[in-house]
Amino acid sequence: MPSLSPHPSDDIYMVIKSLLSLRANSTCAELLKDYDEIVGDNRLPRNFKDLRRLLQSIPEVKCIRNDYGLEMWEVRRTFNNNNNNKKSEYKFMKNDKPRGNFQNTGPSKKRSKSNSRTSSQTSSFTAAQPQRKRQRFLDHNITGHHRIIDLDGYINNYQLMGDDFMLSLAKIDLGFKWTKDPKTQVLRIGYCISGMSIKELSRIVRSSAYIDSRVVVYIGSVDILSGHKLDSIINDYFDLVSAFRERGIEPLLCTLAPLGDPARGDSYDGIVNGFNCWLESRKWRVIDINRCFIDDNGQTIRSVYQKDPRNVTGCNVRHLLWNKLGRQRVLKKLKNSLLDFF
């Protein structure tokens, strides 16, 4: 979380709007938590009723309800697009970030008079698809520094983190667009990154400027495919959970599906089963994805995998990924589990 040392004369409204801009949207409890961590004074009401009244008095702050009916607060800004304020409007579009489930379809810096009407109609923030968020935004509201932050890869307001299995689900079934690292050519959607290991995710969690407070993690397949021992995988996973807790996040952790490649026989089944048993024995919040790929006799369901293994951009070991049926099973399991945990 970035630091802020506001001057006593700072307008409390500006501080609130800056704090709300840290998240896609915030509950009253999350706003108070961010305020205590970043600002630390007593200007913000501690009573939710008084806090709501204060938020309602700020014209640009709006209250919405998420998919579960939870009260969320966000910043919405609208502005006119005419020749008199073209310069200041473009500066706002360039430096500020869209809020929550809104995307910026704003004008380009150069446009002719003939298309000025069309540009003005598309310059405001318009509602996006429920599961879509801006892939990146510039976070400058608190620190004054510009940092590119990934916000893609969400399901029911939970941020997805994982390897190629979660990456394909986010791309094909949730409709997010992936990006390619210009140096390594590795594909990613937010924090779903091709070939990502547990250690790499731990490093990302500790170093990233922004991570949502609600995350779903599916990680570990690459470690198993790369030949890591079970005790090494467990140690790395302990460190991953510690990295989340250092940021005050309690992640939702997923068991691993069988790797599913008949050509490899059952060489990985023992490690997958051992890891899943260990994970479910912990007092953590766990979603049992493995159950989506096992029949009543405990055998792997081959029909939920693609026909052949394929190369992935982030790992030199070929992956047998889930097919549409497999991904739909995982999506259904995730959505039902998120309702239970909520």
From TrEMBL:
InterPro entries: OSK, SGNH_hydro_sf
Domain of life: Eukaryota
Region annotated Disordered, chain positions: 84-133
Ranges where the OSK domain occurs: 150-338
Protein name: CSON007657 protein
Biased composition (Low complexity): 115-124
One Pfam family per UniProt: OSK
Source taxonomy: Eukaryota, Metazoa, Ecdysozoa, Arthropoda, Hexapoda
Biased composition annotated in UniProt, kind: Basic and acidic residues: 86-99
